[in-house]
Design a protein that fits this description.
alpha/beta, 4-stranded parallel beta sheet, two-stranded antiparallel sheet, globular
Length: 223
C-alpha cells in the first residue's frame, strides 16, 4: 500500500499509519497480494480522494461504501468510474437527478468524477480497497476506522461543509458531525434498488448553502 496522502491531510491523518489497526490492515493487504489476489484500485489511487480534495478545499462530502470491484472501474473516488467504463446504475440515477435539479445540466457520456473532486467535493468511500470480483471483501479490516477519522477531523476543524448522506450507511456518519457547524442533507441511496433519491434536489441545495456562506457553488456538469 503506497501511502501518498496529500500534505494537508497527512498533517491530520499521518499518525493513523502508526496505529495497530493500520498496521494490521497493511498486513492484510500484503497477504492478499501474496496470494495473487487482485486488489482495486491500484496502489497509487487508493488515496485519490484526498489527493484531489485537500483538507482546506473541502466544500462538500459525498460518502460511498466500497470501491467498484470490476476491472478498470475503481480509481479512488466514491461513485466514480474511469473513462471507457459504462456508467454504473447508481451514478446514472445521480445524473438523472442532476438533469432535473440543475438547469442546463447535460447527461455525461462517462462516469469519471475527478472534476467534482477538484472543485471541493470529497468523494470518500468508507472502505478504500476491495478484492476483484468480491464486493465488500475489505470491509471491517480497518479502513472504516481511518475514513471515520477523516470525517471527524473535517467535522471538528472546519465549518460550513455540506455533507450529502445517501442511504443508511452514509447517514450513520452523522454521529460524528455537529449540525450547529455543518449542513447535513439526507436522502435514500441512489441505487435503483432503493426508492426516493430522485427529487431530493441535493445538488441545487448544496450550491444554495455554499453561496449563502459566501463560497463558490459547485459546477456539477461533467464534460
Amino acid at each position: 500500500m503506497a501511502v501518498q496522502l496529500e500534505e494537508s491531510w497527512n498533517r491530520l491523518l499521518g499518525g493513523e499509519f502508526e496505529k495497530d489497526y493500520m498496521k494490521n490492515l497493511k498486513a492484510f493487504l500484503l497477504k492478499e497480494k501474496q496470494e495473487s489476489k487482485t486488489v482495486y484500485p491500484p496502489d497509487n489511487l487508493i488515496f485519490n480522494a484526498f489527493a484531489h480534495t485537500p483538507f482546506d478545499k473541502v466544500k462538500a462530502v459525498i460518502i460511498g461504501q466500497d470501491p467498484y470491484h470490476g476491472p478498470n472501474q475503481a480509481h479512488g473516488l466514491a461513485f466514480s468510474v474511469q473513462k471507457g467504463i459504462s456508467v454504473p446504475p447508481s451514478l446514472r440515477n445521480i445524473y438523472k437527478e442532476l438533469a432535473s435539479d440543475i438547469p442546463g445540466f447535460k447527461m455525461p457520456s462517462h462516469g469519471e468524477l475527478t472534476k467534482w473532486a477538484d472543485e471541493g467535493v470529497l468523494l470518500l468511500n468508507a472502505t478504500l480497497t476491495v478484492q476483484a470480483g468480491v464486493a465488500g471483501s475489505h470491509q471491517k479490516k480497518g479502513w472504516e476506522q481511518f475514513t471515520d477519522q477523516a470525517i471527524k477531523v473535517l467535522a471538528d476543524n472546519r465549518k460550513g461543509i455540506v455533507f450529502l448522506l445517501w442511504g443508511k450507511y452514509a447517514q450513520s456518519k452523522a454521529a460524528f458531525i455537529d449540525e450547529a457547524k455543518h449542513f447535513l442533507l439526507t436522502a435514500p441511496h441512489p441505487s435503483p434498488l432503493a426508492q426516493g433519491f430522485n427529487g431530493c434536489k441535493h445538488f441545487s441545495k448544496t450550491n444554495e448553502i455554499l453561496v449563502k456562506s459566501e463560497k463558490t457553488g459547485i459546477d456539477w456538469q461533467i464534460e
